Amino acid sequence: MKRSLVGFGGLVLALALVAAPVAGQANVTGTWNITIEGPEGPAGATAQLTQDGATFSGTISVDQAEGASIENGMIDGNTMKFQLVVSVQGMDFALDVEGQVDGDSIEGQMTVPDFGGFAFTAERTAR
Protein backbone atom coordinates (compact mmCIF):
# COMPACT_ATOMS: atom_id res chain seq x y z
CA MET A 1 0.00 0.00 0.00
CA LYS A 2 2.79 2.41 0.91
CA ARG A 3 4.52 1.71 -2.41
CA SER A 4 1.26 2.47 -4.30
CA LEU A 5 0.82 5.81 -2.53
CA VAL A 6 4.42 6.81 -3.30
CA GLY A 7 3.91 5.89 -6.97
CA PHE A 8 0.62 7.79 -7.09
CA GLY A 9 2.23 10.83 -5.44
CA GLY A 10 5.02 10.76 -8.03
CA LEU A 11 2.45 10.61 -10.83
CA VAL A 12 0.53 13.59 -9.42
CA LEU A 13 3.76 15.60 -9.09
CA ALA A 14 4.81 14.76 -12.65
CA LEU A 15 1.42 15.83 -14.02
CA ALA A 16 1.54 19.08 -12.06
CA LEU A 17 4.98 19.90 -13.45
CA VAL A 18 3.86 19.24 -17.02
CA ALA A 19 0.76 21.43 -16.67
CA ALA A 20 2.47 24.33 -14.86
CA PRO A 21 4.36 27.06 -16.73
CA VAL A 22 8.12 26.80 -16.41
CA ALA A 23 9.44 28.79 -13.44
CA GLY A 24 10.46 32.29 -14.50
CA GLN A 25 8.44 32.00 -17.68
CA ALA A 26 5.82 34.57 -18.63
CA ASN A 27 2.19 33.54 -18.86
CA VAL A 28 0.21 35.04 -21.77
CA THR A 29 -3.12 33.29 -21.15
CA GLY A 30 -6.02 35.74 -21.31
CA THR A 31 -7.62 38.49 -23.35
CA TRP A 32 -5.34 41.24 -24.67
CA ASN A 33 -6.10 44.66 -26.18
CA ILE A 34 -3.37 45.48 -28.69
CA THR A 35 -2.30 48.75 -30.32
CA ILE A 36 -0.18 48.46 -33.48
CA GLU A 37 1.70 51.56 -34.65
CA GLY A 38 1.25 51.14 -38.42
CA PRO A 39 2.28 53.39 -41.30
CA GLU A 40 -1.24 54.85 -41.55
CA GLY A 41 -1.60 55.41 -37.81
CA PRO A 42 -2.51 53.17 -34.90
CA ALA A 43 -4.56 50.02 -35.49
CA GLY A 44 -6.35 48.03 -32.83
CA ALA A 45 -6.54 44.30 -32.26
CA THR A 46 -7.89 41.92 -29.64
CA ALA A 47 -6.35 38.54 -28.87
CA GLN A 48 -7.55 35.61 -26.80
CA LEU A 49 -4.52 33.46 -25.90
CA THR A 50 -4.15 30.11 -24.16
CA GLN A 51 -0.71 28.97 -23.01
CA ASP A 52 0.40 25.36 -22.59
CA GLY A 53 3.93 25.24 -21.17
CA ALA A 54 6.28 26.94 -23.63
CA THR A 55 3.70 27.25 -26.43
CA PHE A 56 0.54 29.28 -26.91
CA SER A 57 -2.29 29.52 -29.39
CA GLY A 58 -5.41 31.58 -29.75
CA THR A 59 -7.52 33.86 -31.84
CA ILE A 60 -6.93 37.44 -32.90
CA SER A 61 -9.12 40.10 -34.45
CA VAL A 62 -7.33 42.98 -36.21
CA ASP A 63 -9.35 46.16 -36.95
CA GLN A 64 -7.99 46.77 -40.46
CA ALA A 65 -7.81 43.14 -41.64
CA GLU A 66 -10.38 40.80 -43.15
CA GLY A 67 -8.84 37.84 -41.32
CA ALA A 68 -5.94 37.03 -39.02
CA SER A 69 -4.45 33.96 -37.40
CA ILE A 70 -1.75 33.20 -34.83
CA GLU A 71 0.76 30.50 -35.76
CA ASN A 72 3.78 28.94 -34.00
CA GLY A 73 3.34 30.72 -30.64
CA MET A 74 6.37 30.19 -28.37
CA ILE A 75 7.36 31.54 -24.95
CA ASP A 76 10.98 31.63 -23.74
CA GLY A 77 11.34 33.35 -20.37
CA ASN A 78 9.64 36.74 -20.87
CA THR A 79 9.97 36.67 -24.67
CA MET A 80 7.01 35.68 -26.82
CA LYS A 81 7.29 34.92 -30.53
CA PHE A 82 4.71 34.00 -33.13
CA GLN A 83 3.73 34.54 -36.72
CA LEU A 84 0.65 36.64 -37.44
CA VAL A 85 -0.93 35.91 -40.81
CA VAL A 86 -3.32 38.71 -41.89
CA SER A 87 -5.48 39.26 -44.96
CA VAL A 88 -5.74 42.87 -46.15
CA GLN A 89 -7.47 43.86 -49.40
CA GLY A 90 -7.31 40.28 -50.66
CA MET A 91 -3.60 39.82 -49.94
CA ASP A 92 -2.09 37.67 -47.16
CA PHE A 93 0.86 38.95 -45.15
CA ALA A 94 2.94 36.97 -42.65
CA LEU A 95 4.31 39.12 -39.84
CA ASP A 96 7.02 37.90 -37.49
CA VAL A 97 6.09 39.08 -34.00
CA GLU A 98 8.31 39.28 -30.94
CA GLY A 99 7.46 40.90 -27.63
CA GLN A 100 8.60 41.21 -24.04
CA VAL A 101 5.97 40.23 -21.49
CA ASP A 102 5.91 42.17 -18.22
CA GLY A 103 3.00 40.94 -16.12
CA ASP A 104 -0.16 42.25 -17.79
CA SER A 105 1.60 44.21 -20.54
CA ILE A 106 3.63 43.43 -23.65
CA GLU A 107 5.86 45.65 -25.77
CA GLY A 108 7.27 44.44 -29.03
CA GLN A 109 7.82 44.59 -32.75
CA MET A 110 5.99 43.17 -35.76
CA THR A 111 8.14 42.73 -38.85
CA VAL A 112 6.69 42.46 -42.36
CA PRO A 113 9.12 41.27 -45.04
CA ASP A 114 9.75 44.09 -47.57
CA PHE A 115 7.79 46.62 -45.46
CA GLY A 116 9.80 46.94 -42.25
CA GLY A 117 8.73 46.81 -38.63
CA PHE A 118 5.95 48.23 -36.51
CA ALA A 119 5.92 48.64 -32.75
CA PHE A 120 3.02 47.30 -30.72
CA THR A 121 1.83 47.34 -27.12
CA ALA A 122 -0.71 45.11 -25.43
CA GLU A 123 -2.59 45.16 -22.13
CA ARG A 124 -4.27 42.10 -20.60
CA THR A 125 -7.91 42.81 -19.80
CA ALA A 126 -8.86 39.38 -18.40
CA ARG A 127 -7.20 36.11 -17.42
Summary, kept brief:
The protein has one helix spanning 2-19; strands spanning 30-38, 41-52, 55-62, 67-76, 79-88, 91-102, 105-112, 116-126. The chain is mainly beta and 127 residues long.
Describe, in plain words, how this protein is organized in 3D.
The structure is a single chain. The protein has 127 residues and is mostly beta strands. It has one domain (24-126): Lipocalin, CATH 2.40.128. The protein is 14% helix and 63% strand. It has one helix and eight strands, in the order αββββββββ. It has an eight-stranded antiparallel beta barrel with strand order 1-2-3-4-5-6-7-8. A hairpin with a 4-residue loop joins β3 and β4 (67-76). The longest helix has 18 residues, at 2-19. It is globular, with a radius of gyration of 18 Å. The chain starts with a helix and ends with a strand.
Residue share in helix: 10-25%
Give the overall shape: globular
Number of strands: 8
CATH architecture: Beta Barrel
| Integer tally of domains | 1
| End-to-end C-alpha gap | 41 Å
Portion in strands: over 45%
Low-confidence stretches: 1-21
Secondary-structure topology with pairs:
Layout: H1 2-19, E1 30-38, E2 41-52, E3 55-62, E4 67-76, E5 79-88, E6 91-102, E7 105-112, E8 116-126
Antiparallel strand pairs: 1-2, 1-8, 2-3, 3-4, 4-5, 5-6, 6-7, 7-8
Feature tags:
mainly beta, Lipocalin, eight-stranded antiparallel barrel, 8 strands, 14% helix, disordered N terminus
